[in-house]
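Tutorial handout. Part one gives the primary structure; part two gives the three-dimensional structure as tokens.
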Amino acid sequence: MSTEAADTASLLANARAALERYMEVHVDDDGALTFSHADVPCAVQAIRLADGLTVLSLTCVVAWDLADDPALAAAAAERAGQGLFGTLGVVHTDNGVDLTLRYAFPAEGMDPSPLGTLLMLVVSTASQLRSEFLGTQEQE
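Part two.
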């Protein structure tokens, strides 16, 4: 196993231990971690960007197939400016609009407890955003 593969595998094992304190986590064939929190599917991957810089990348799919409405995009842009943990994105698809929350950070050497707290801050934000945006969609 290469150093890069060992580093990313170790980081993913640490992230798995951190997340399993809160929920059930699945390991995909490629080593990525997947889980759901309050109906928000999430995935964690580890990537080495440079020697000594391996990051965890967390992606949460906040909502999907929403109506492609300019007001939704404006609300997402406004809400994105208020966030501390993650970047809220709007993806236009053939079925409407998908909202994602992404967060990448260097996590080498983090103990499971603070790593779990950091990951859950992002995941909790994604769940809150889902509630906000689906509530907005249902009212229209």
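Part three, for discussion. The CA atoms of residues 8 and 46 lie 5 Å apart. The radius of gyration is 16 Å.
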